[in-house]
Amino acid sequence: MSSSVRSPLLMLLSTALVVSGCLSDPDPNGDDSGAPALVVPDGWWEGIVPSSLTDEAHDHTIRSHHANLTTDNFEVVGWDPLVTDHYNSTLTGMGCGGAVTRDDGRRLAVVHSIATDVSFVVADITDPTTPRMLGEFYLPNSVVWDADISADGMHVLIGAYPPIFGDPTPVLPPVPPALGDLTAPTGPAWAEGFESLMVFRNSCTGEVQAVGPENYLPGPAIVMAGIQDPENPVFEQYVPQPVIGPHSVGSQIIDGKVYATSSVTNLAHEGSYYTIFEIVDDRLVPVSTIRTPGTASSWTVTKSPGSVTPFLNGHTDVFLHKHPLTDQFLAYLANWDGMYVYDLTVPQAPVEVSVWMDGKAGSVHTTYPFPFLRDGKQYLVVGQEVGEPVDLPSGWVYLLDITDPAAPEEVGRWTLPVKPKWDDGGLQFSPHYVAVSNETLFVSNYHGGLWAVDISDLSKPLANGLFVPDRDSPASYGGKSYGPVVEDVIIDPMNGILTVWDNGGGVYQLRFLDKVPAARAPAWVET
């Protein structure tokens, strides 16, 4: 899933006070600084999502075309390009991640790469002003769809697809020159009798490194790597998740237990499922499996008489939550056609509690419970992930009252306030993952950046800021230019710092200045 752990362990209070003291100014305009007062001007939202609709010369891959789009109520506190050892460059395809403060006070962030054979990168973000790349994990035979850090900060969960979703040719360990007369192994024996051949050569440095057979896992699976020493991630476990593999992974702490989740989208409705594990030491211990909800009524009849085609599940995602009012152990499932609530009081026997749907809108991708009660009520964010809509600027992000888990009720919804042209198609401006802090909802919108949405009135969420990354890596992947893309956002509850990753530009630490005067963009009105 990523957008990990939204309930991190407490860090040392003294560290929190130092950090918050350095980073938090009660007056963001700094009365005695002599600097001009910050203000977000009226109409800031016009033309702020650049496309051929507003600028025929706009190039989505050129960073300079995205400069000066960030509003003044976002401050970049720290940045690191995450230059990897394996490629001597910043990865591309970095999207989903997680961040956790460990018991030792160290705050770590991980992000996956869907486009390279480095499955994830670990960074130290304990000091938000100086995030620092620490380690990486090589997994060449799988396409990594998602990665997340465990809720205790000691492991990384990897959602691995088989290589048919990337390069269809499996990567076998290269044969060292001294063993060049041997045939590269192709069957199960290579994992047992050819471990001495498990090496790879770094094409940038020429260094030959030994690699264990676990780096050549066939997929599909949830893979767990240990980051007890985050500079040297190590393989811990591989759990098959057929047929295609996890669309998303995640982790939360419930009643002191660290749980991991794997959401398997096998496209066909009847073949998709959710698996829940408890992390015990360095093992994933199976706890429960939830078959994709829904009935045969979700199936569609084809043109061939007497035949049916299973309803296609585009997404599955899950967030585990201990409801603060009912004391129930719940799972909020994003299940493509809608949001489903399951009671896991007996984890081995999950029970459906309720279903919420926006008619036939579908495309439900994200569930995220507010990490606090609001006016004595529990709220839940539910988000779509969509291609370009016909009549809307982008997909909807819904706000639900989940105070009674058996009766979810929509209280508000938000989408982009302006309609861009989706020049590159796909998910170019779709909402993805979200987070909530105080009275602000943060929504990642792929190439549209990270939006701040004022939810002081939950029935009328209105955008009041935007962050668009525009920093160039000093060592971009393959020497190419990659346009900014933001797919995830994590909030540090101790100081409000936001962690986001840019597709090909590294990790950012942001502060949102909610006291800076900012006009609210008008809500999009459906026609």
Kindly describe this structure.
The protein is mostly beta strands and 527 residues long. It has a single domain, classed as 7 Propeller (Methylamine Dehydrogenase, Chain H), CATH 2.130.10.10. 3% of the residues lie in helices and 37% in strands. The chain has two helices and 34 strands. The strands form ten sheets. A four-stranded antiparallel sheet has the order 1-34-33-32, with no helix packed on it. The protein has a four-stranded antiparallel sheet with strand order 2-3-4-5, with no helix packed on it. The longest helix is centred in the first third of the chain and has 11 residues. The chain is globular, with a radius of gyration of 23 Å.
Count every beta strand, where a strand is a DSSP E run of 2 or more residues: 34
What's the alpha carbon Rg, rounded to whole Å?
23 Å
| CATH class designation | Mainly Beta
Helix content: under 10%
CATH homologous superfamily title:
YVTN repeat-like/Quinoprotein amine dehydrogenase
How are strands sequenced across the largest beta sheet?
A: 1-34-33-32
Average pLDDT score: 84
Strand content: 35-45%
Figure out the total of helices. 2
**What class would the helix/strand composition place it in?**
mainly beta
Taking the alpha carbons of the first and last residues, their distance comes to 33 Å
What does the overall shape look like?
globular
The fold-level CATH name is Methylamine Dehydrogenase, Chain H
Low-confidence stretches: 2-24, 165-199, 296-307
Reported CATH architecture: 7 Propeller
Total count of domains: 1
Largest sheet: 4 strands, antiparallel
